[in-house]
Design a protein that fits this description.
92 residues; alpha/beta; 3-stranded parallel sheet; two-stranded parallel ribbon; 4 helices; 23% strand; elongated
Length: 92
């Protein structure tokens, strides 16, 4: 059975090293970058650090904004609760 890995920051140095490491161990590796995810015109949900802040226009979930004017929702800490909140912010 093939193991799978999904790396959200695959274009960064750490992400690329992790991808190499996992590929060498037989994993099938997938990655997603904010700009690539946005190309079909869909919004991006991303951890609010690094490249996501440089390549997308967004807001932090839980803030009073008009989501229609942004292309991304950011979450401040990597937790299930904040990711869930960011997903709900897009559904409004």
């Amino acid at each position: 059975m093939t193991k799978h890995a999904f790396i959200t920051g695959i274009i960064g140095q750490d992400g690329s090293y992790l991808a190499e490491f996992l590929l060498e161990r037989g994993y099938e590796v997938y990655g997603l970058v904010p700009v690539g995810a946005q190309s079909p015109g869909r919004p991006v949900i991303a951890y609010g650090r690094g490249g996501a802040l440089e390549t997308t226009i967004g807001f932090y979930s839980g803030k009073a904004v008009l989501p229609e004017s942004y292309t991304s929702v950011f979450f401040q800490q990597q937790s299930v609760e904040l990711l869930t909140e960011a997903i709900r912010a897009l559904k409004k």
